[in-house]
Model the fold of this input.
Amino acid sequence: MTPLYASYVAIALWAVSWGLAALWSRRTAARPPALDQVAYLAPTVVGGFLVAVTARAAIEGWAFAFGGPALWRLSDWAGWALFGLCLLGLMFTWWARLTLGDLWSSSVQRKAGHTLVERGPYRLVRHPIYSGLILALTAASLELARPVGFLGTALLCLGFWMKARLEERFLSAELGEGAYADYRRRTPMLVPFWPRGA
Done:
C-alpha cells in the first residue's frame, strides 16, 4: 500500500464514520436562510469533486486523463510523513466532533439548548473540524502533487472558511454577541497560535 492510497482510504473511512455519526445530533432550533448556505456549498462541492476524481485518477493510473502528471515524486518517508499529517488532521476532527456531542450539525444551525463550546480543541481554534480537514486534505494533496488536486483543495479550504464566517455571524446573533466576541478575541479561527480574532 502506498502512502497516497493509505491517505485516501483513511479519508474514505473518516467520511463513512462521519456520515454515520450524523444521526447523533439535537433537534434544530434555527438556521440561516438557505441562500446564505449555498455560497459556501458551491466551492466545497466543486473542490471535493476535483480532489476525489484526481485522487482516483492517480491511484488507478489514469492521471494523464484527469489532473495531469505529478509535479514531483516523494520519497517513501516523505509520503508516510504526509500520511501521518493526514491522519492527525482526521483525528483532530473527531476530537472536535466528540467534544461537541449532539450540538454538531452538518450545516450552519443553532441546536435546541445550544451553548458555546470552549473546551477540548475549541480552546485551540474556533473551528477545529475545518482546521483538521484542511490539514488532512492539504497533506493528501501534497502527496497527490497534481495541479487539479491543489485547485480542489483550495476550493475546499475557501468553502470551509466561508462556512466558518457564516457560522460566526449566525451564532453571534443567536447566542449573543458578547459571549462570542470574547471567545473570538481569545481564540484563533482556524490556525492554532495565529493572531487572535483572525
User: Anything to note?
Assistant: The CA atoms of residues 42 and 74 lie 32 Å apart. Residues 1-11+40-102+124-198 form one domain.
